[in-house]
User: Fold this.
Amino acid sequence: MPWGFLFGNVIVSCLFAGVVLDMCRRRPARKSDRKATVPAGVQKSCLGLSKTQKRKNSACDIFLLGKEKETHFAHNRSGIEFPGNGIPLPGNGIPFPGNSIPQRRDGMTEFAEERRAAILSMLERNSSVQVAEVADALGVSRVTARADLDALARDGKLRRTHGGAVSLSRTLTVSIQDLRVNVNVEAKRAIARVAATFVQPGQSVLVDTGTTGLELVRALGERGEVTIVTADLTIADYVDRSMPSAEVVLLGGALRKGHRYTSGAVAVSALSMLRPDVAFVCPTAFAPGRGFMTGYEGMAELKRAFLACAGMTCVLMDASKVGAHGLFFFGDVGDADIIVMEKDPEGAVAGCLGDVSTRLVLAGE
Assistant:
């Protein structure tokens, strides 16, 4: 065999062996051969975790330096703590289950709760509120005010009425108060402000039942020390709670349930022993050509006594009373010294005065 042929085979074999060795050196290491590069503080916590959880652990260990620290992936400022790393993020330290979404407190919800707490405070002071009153006091729209009142009513914290609400803890039930407490309220308040000017500090005042009478008592809060005579339990309760300088004389009699006032022979008898300085009488209706009317026989008897018991008699009624329904007559325009209204529709009351000395005062003018 030629020596050249043998020498060529040896060279080829060496080249082939070199190629195989080079390939072995460049072969990628198997997963089992790779060494973990997880930091020692995190290595133990990563045992038994899925790939997703391990990524979260790594993300939680990355912090940005600055005024606030944030995670690279979570980008969270709520103090959420991911399981496994044991490192709470800046904030309130609220635990966060693995895959749930953090719940943030809605700022609008906080504002709504503050508004509704303010409404309840208003009801604690005044027993009733109007939508317009709430909107002005809180600086919101009437739509928002109505929504807040509706929400509080659903929660059982107040009772909604036409145009407003009443307190459940201090519910007013004057002449079916839930239906009338916010009806023509601006007119009633204007009438009450004018009527209060007829009262001097230290005088005794007879106040009839009804929402207009209640507004008058509120207006009298600025008149100093007065004595209020009434058959109305709600008015007496208001004076007791809100007018520490005033005294109350409560007439007895039979209680009319659902209306919170007394009437009947006992109330009339008690009134016969008194002579208040000023009597304020509030009719249910005024019938042109007839006079003042009410819808309850027992109250008609008491109102008739109201007109005749005081040094000065003042009738208070808003324009809606003109032509309203009232079955029982109890007095004529000549039985009053002063009639106070916010307006006289079509001169209905003025036309009935004739030659009588009764003075008609319009609060709206």
